[in-house]
Each structure stands twice: as structure tokens, then as C-alpha cells.
Amino acid sequence: MTMTASDVVVRRAPGGELSALSAAGCMFRSLGDPARLAILRHLAAGEHKVVDLTAHLGLAQSTVSAHLACLRDCGLVASRPQGRASLWSLTTAPELLDLLATAERLLAVTGDAVALCPVYGEQA
């Protein structure tokens, strides 16, 4: 399926196109941290406790909790209590997984250009 610029639907908001795209920019910033992407990858396999994520990722509990709070505030993950712990899961798994798969395809096409970008690349 080929998409053109006219196929992209932009939510209309007071203030014009930039205001309408602000929410999209915020969403992409929430996905802009490798640790948050790793957390989402683990949650795509099913529910996890923070302790499980810290073991998988080798990050401190406070770091994982802060990333989960960010993802929760963005509406991407949710938790439910299980005893004294909480189980975390994706809230919109199909859409999020589609977005990440599309990003992988875009990265395959652009190669190292994003990583080498002087503004947003790995060395920036």
C-alpha cells in the first residue's frame, strides 16, 4: 500500500498545522529513549512486573519506574495490581506494534542516516 501526503490526516486544531502536529511530536519524544523502547518491546511479549523489567534490562528500579511513568502518562502502558506489585502491559498493542514495525522498515530504507545525523544522531 502506497501512501501519499494527501492520505495523511492531520487533526485540525486552533493555531494551524503546527498545533495539530504537536501531539504527534510529543508522542515521538516519548518513544525517543532506547530504554523506553526496550520496555515496550518486553511488554509486547506480555505483562511484566518492574522487577522483571529491571532484570531483563539491567537498569535500576527507579529508572524503570520513571520510564514506565512516562509511558503511562502518554497513554501507552497501564498497570494493574497483583498482590503488592503491579503488572504492566501495553494499552494499544496493535497500533504501537504497527508503528514500531513501520519505523523498522523506515530505518532499513534510510540506513545509518538517522544515527549519523549531527542534530539528533547518536553523537549529538
Descriptive overview:
- There is one protein chain.
- The chain has a two-stranded antiparallel ribbon with strand order 1-2.
- It has six helices and two strands.
- It is mainly α and about 120 residues long.
- Strand 1 (about 75-80) and strand 2 (about 85-90) form a beta hairpin.
- The chain is about 55% helix and about 10% strand.
- The N and C termini lie far apart (about 35 Å).
- The protein folds into two domains: about 35-90, Orthogonal Bundle (Arc Repressor Mutant, subunit A); about 90-124, no CATH class.
Keywords, separated by commas or semicolons:
Arc Repressor Mutant, subunit A; 2 domains; mainly alpha; 124 residues
